[in-house]
Amino acid sequence: MAEARKVREKPQRFTNSMRKKLIWVFVLAALAFVGLSIRLILINRDEGENYSRKVLSQQRYDSTTIPFRRGDIVDANGTVLAYSEKVYNIILDTTQLTDKEAYLEPTLNALQKEFGLDVTQIRSYVSTHPDSRYYILKKTMTFDEIAGFRALQDSASETYDENVKGIWFEENYIRKYPNGTLASDVIGFTTGDNEGTYGLEEYYDDVLNGNPGREFGYLDDDLNLERTTIPAEDGNTIVSTIDGNIQTIVTKYLREFNEEYKNNVRTANGAHNVGCIIMEVNTGNILAMAGAPFFDLNDTRNKDALIGQPMVDENGNRTGEYITEENVSTLEGDLLFQNYNALWKNFCITDTYEPGSVAKPFTIAGAIEDGSITGEEVYNCTGELEVGGWPIQCHGGFGHGNISVAGGIEQSCNVVMMKVSQAEGAAKFAAAQNRFGFGLRTGIDLAGEVRTVGLTYTASQLGPSELATNSFGQSFNVSMIEMISGYCSLINGGNYYEPHMVSKVLSSSGATIKNIEPRVLRQTVSPSTSEQILRDCNLVVSGENGTGKTARPAGYMIGGKTGTAETLPRGNREYVVSFMGHAPAVDPQIAIYVVVDRANAARQDDAKYATRIVRSILTETLPYLGIPMTETLTEEEAKELENLESAWIRTDEAQVEAEEEQQDTEPAVYEGTDVPDEEYTDLLEEESEAPFFESFEIDEETGYYVDPATGTMIDPETGEVFNAQSLPDGL
Amino acid sequence: MVSRVDFSERRNNIRLNRRRIRPVRSMNPPAVQTIEAAMPKVGYIDYSLIFTIIVLCAFGLLMLFSTSSYNASLTMGDPTYYFRHQLIATALGAVVMIVTALIPYGFWKKLYVPAYVVSVISLLLVLTPLGIEKNGARRWIKVGGTSIQPAEIAKIGLIIFLAALVCKLGRNLAIMKGKLIFLGVTLPVAGMLYLITDNLSSALIVFGIALVMLFVATPDYKNFVLIGALFAAVAAVIVYLIMNVESVAEAGFRFHRIQVWLNPEAYEKGFQTVQGLYAIGSGGILGKGLGQSMQKLGFVPEAQNDMIFSIICEELGLFGAFLVMVLFMVLIWRLFVIANNAPDRFGAMITVGVMAHIMIQVILNIAVVTNTIPNTGITLPFISYGGTSILFLMAEMGLVMSVARRINA
Questions:
Q1: Is the previous residue joined to B29 through a cis bond, with omega within 30 degrees of 0?
Q2: Which residues pair with B141 in a beta bridge?
Q3: pLDDT, tens digit only, all 409 positions of chain B
Q4: A649, containing H or E segment
Q5: What are the pLDDT digits (tens) for A387-442?
Q6: Is-contact A476 A457, C-beta < 8 A?
Q7: Do residue B344 and residue A13 have CB atoms under 8 angstroms apart?
Q8: What angle do CA A75, A516, A501 make, to 5 degrees?
């Protein structure tokens, strides 16, 4: 105890002076607190509103966009012409990768092993960009290609490696065209951001595109941060009226023509352009549309496709040269782009030319319709006609002698046309042209249809010589689609259908959301005039002196009109030859129009360039469409058909084999849609069995459709069915 | 022992604990003796202090969870990541606090040299392979499965060492030589903190603690006023010079933070400060409500660390901010009371050191967050995220409680 007391006495005390100083410390601390409190109040008082606004203005709920899937383009049979495939971009997040040293090597090794990436390059990127969170290592990988790497990152998989970090996959879609060059002008293509360029892709851009989804953070009622995903809305699928099989046939023969005449007299394609349209006469549906030269939709910027094409300058005008293997590499910048445009554009709807003799049926039909002639007149052709002081030649030069109106079409007599137009007069002629749609857009659902206003003559502009040349299809310009749309109305009883390419819009799940019905825009001629023209046009092929005999396919009788038009300047010996026809000759179902723009031949003014193509195409197309043969086959023709048939079988077999091979390597085309494959194909089969829409007669009194099978009437708006007896009151 | 207290010593205690003493006085002396004899000899327990610590820890955990959950779910995939770690550290700290409180603090007086050595060695360990580098600074060492910050060890080690040194130097502290020795032994630790761990703020805190302890331990005022005036003058000159400098390069890397302080919106490095100010300014008087901060959603970087006070301001407003400051004021006041009543100088100086530590850190933190001083990374005690920090803060609290137990109430 005594010791303890000793120790207790020793301890140094916390003296009063120290206490005093400690009070100072405490007071200073308290003052500092007061000072800071004042500072806090001042910040709130002076800047409170300003800072509150700043806080709100910088809210962005860091969201990510989920890409949508652009809709497909399928043909009338459900064959996919264009689809979008999900692909993945490999993204490197350096900050995550370098978070732990242990991550770097395993991750780099995995990248090299799975994707064959250059590790040294990545390593140097990582060291120079330690704060990078988004760097695209590789683009457009398929699901299978990244599956191996994903397994490394998946804690549930056997190959899981916890040290593989800092890599993620960004979803995207790329556009694919399984048939490559098929219908390239019609389909068009897309640029990177799902923006359609040319053709259906451009015209139906809004329909095909969906809405991107979003993944974002937001504050809920209790102001907790929630993450929400709004899924992307996939785009709609459009069903084209194009029949892939007919399109293939057309493509085949246009290509064959090109091969035959390529580098013939000039080192270039078989012709500047060769266009072909096949259209359903009674609906306006386009079954096939093609314009050579073609290009691969999967590889739109392949310079090789330009070779053989007439070169254009920076303004898109022809230079007179042709693109060759030698000079193609010199094309660059705007010049290259203009030449690509010339390749990508759709000749059938964007190019105009003087139609030539194919306009003759229109001249006659117009004159009969407005009562200027009866169609039974006979004229005398001496080989030329003096108009306005100048002689205008009929072709051949010797004259057709006494020739009827029908003969004028059959033998393509210019003099008959000039005399008919003289009888008709400028005003009526111009009105008729207008009725046939010359100088007007047809309104076809394709991007880039040319505006032809000003390319035809008004009544006041039609002097005697203009009227004369107009009558046989020179001096005014048209597009192919204008001509064939007008022609369909001439031979189908006078109904001018709006030509169209898409019959139906399907949602991403396969449900029909819109049917596009055929639309009659106007009556061009009366049924009787139509019949007369049909008869006359049939003579062009079947008549003794018909100019279009070579267009007749084996086993069928068809009708039509040839055309040989001089181009400007006159006398340059460059011609646009064409054949516009219909099949079968009686009750025509389809119309076909082939235009060969400046064939690569010494003599270009021969309509046979076109008629031969028409013949080849129809020989395959008409049996495909199930149109019964009406003509007896000659031995030669029978043999020809036999050869064709065996060729079909061969290609079919080759196709099946190729498809089987493809199935091994490539995912099915429909993988990735929301609809199970089976369901989708069922759906498409159904569609191809029954027509998407039927063309009904219209009851004149009520405006209702008349069902041709039962005779009942259908209200086109409500779909209600009426018998003749149960019509609603007032009708 | 308790009953045989020298009366004069007891009177001293009464000065600040009158209220506490009064009921004892009114009691019958024999009765008091009986009760006290029946009770375990835990000595004086400062319930106000314990209550304040519990409230601070609980409030700190709450705010930490609110502040860090977004960051945690984003970077760790688990919103409770920081909260759980802090909770474990706090629980561990509570145990450490109780153990430290039960150890008579006199024990540490004998270990004052080892305490200094441990501080220095732990700082040197950062240079060994045990050191861990995070965000470009080597400030951690690996111990077992976790990482700890030697700066926190150095703070508590130095407090013990300096408290003992005050006793050892005794009257020598009154002369300049003693003062220089006192500060001279502090400098190596502060210097190492700055040079090895590149941690200016910890160096400042350590030096500040030493300065406060020295101030209290010596009767001298003049020199401290002079030092304060000199510091203010130098700071003013530097700020004046920097104000007239246009480019970052001219100011130099060291002084760039002063440029940022003067005009935080103009520089990239002012982002954190500006976002913190936005948070404070947008809080208003009552704040946006607990958990409703917008600035913690990725705008205030690592909001659970140094800038947590700005989020408190945003969520709980000036009201919440003052509440936090009052809590710290109560804590400092309790430490002040305990120091004043400490049975000996060593205990008092330990308490003064702890008080200085908390005081300096809280004031500097709030000053940084409000951009009152240039930005330097200082955490808010008990509230900011940091396992080592909370663990050693609790140990310091345990030390103070051990001192408090010896107060003869």
A1: no
A2: B131, B148
A3: 444 444 444 444 444 444 444 444 444 555 555 555 554 566 788 899 999 999 999 999 999 999 998 888 777 778 889 999 999 999 999 999 999 999 999 899 999 999 999 999 999 988 888 888 776 677 888 887 788 889 999 999 999 999 999 999 888 888 889 999 999 999 999 999 988 888 888 999 999 999 999 999 988 888 899 999 999 999 999 888 888 876 666 666 667 788 888 888 877 788 889 999 999 998 889 988 888 888 887 788 888 888 999 999 999 999 999 999 999 999 999 999 999 999 899 999 999 999 999 999 999 999 999 999 988 888 999 999 988 999 999 999 999 999 999 887 5
A4: helix A635-665
A5: 888 888 887 667 888 899 998 898 889 999 999 999 999 999 999 999 999 998 99
A6: yes
A7: yes
A8: 40
Min CA distance, A35 vs chain B (Å)?
9
**Residue A724, SS3 per DSSP:** coil
A486, amino acid identity:
G
Locate tokens 């008579």: which residue?
B104
Q: Read off the pLDDT of residues B309-353 as tens digits, 9 standing for 90 and up.
A: 999 999 999 999 999 999 999 999 999 999 999 989 999 999 999
Place of tokens 């055929």: A518
Tokens representing B264? 């935080």
DSSP label at A509?
T
* Residue B321 to residue A40, Cβ atoms within 8 A: yes
- Give every CB contact of residue A676 below 8 A, 6+ residues apart in sequence: none
* Rounded distance between C-alpha atoms, residue A521 and residue A184, angstroms: 28
Highest mean pLDDT among A6-15, A139-148, B131-140, B303-312: B303-312
How far is residue B214 from each of residues A124, B179, B189, B396, measured CA to CA in Å? 53, 7, 16, 19
CA distance A481 to chain B (A): 59
Q: Are A44 and B283 in contact (CB under 8 A)?
A: yes
- Chain A residue numbers with beta carbons less than 8 Å from the beta carbon of B352 are 22, 25
A433: nearest Cα among A503, A364, A521: A364
Q: Would the CB atoms of A22 and B340 count as touching at under 8 Å?
A: yes
> CA-to-CA distance for B279 and B295, rounded, in angstroms?
6
Residue A413: name the closest of A378, A375, A381 by CA.
Answer: A381
State the smallest CA–CA distance between residue B34 and chain A in angstroms: 23
Query: Could you give the 3-state DSSP secondary structure of residue B131?
Result: strand
Contacts of A23 in chain B (CB under 8 A): 336
Query: DSSP string covering A521-538, please?
Result: EEE-S-HHHHHHHHHHHH
Q: Does A709 touch chain B (CB under 8 A)?
A: no
Reported as a single tens digit per residue, the pLDDT across A556-605 is 999 999 998 888 887 888 899 999 999 899 999 999 999 999 999 888 88
This prediction's pTM: 0.58
Those residues whose C-beta lies under 8 Å from the C-beta of residue B115, and which sit 6 or more positions away, are: B108, B157, B158, B160, B161, B164
Q: How far apart are CA A183 and CA B172, in angstroms?
A: 102
pLDDT band for position A11 (50/70/90)? low
CA distance B131 to B121: 12
Rounded CA-CA distance A507/A208 in Å is 10
Question: How far B293 CA sits from the closest chain A CA (Å)?
Answer: 9
The answer to whether the CB atoms of A55 and B282 lie below 8 A apart is: yes
Cβ neighbours of residue B195 under 8 Å, at least 6 residues apart? none
Give every CB contact of residue B334 below 8 A, 6+ residues apart in sequence: B46, B48, B49, B52
Token reading at B115: 């305490």
Residue B27 in contact with residue B36, Cβ under 8 Å? no
Task: Pick the closest to residue A680 from A72, A68, A70, A69 (CA basis).
Answer: A72
Q: What is the Cα–Cα distance from B274 to B307, expressed in whole angstroms?
A: 11
Helix (H) or strand (E) holding A237: strand A237-240
B-chain CB neighbours of A47 within 8 Å are 277, 281
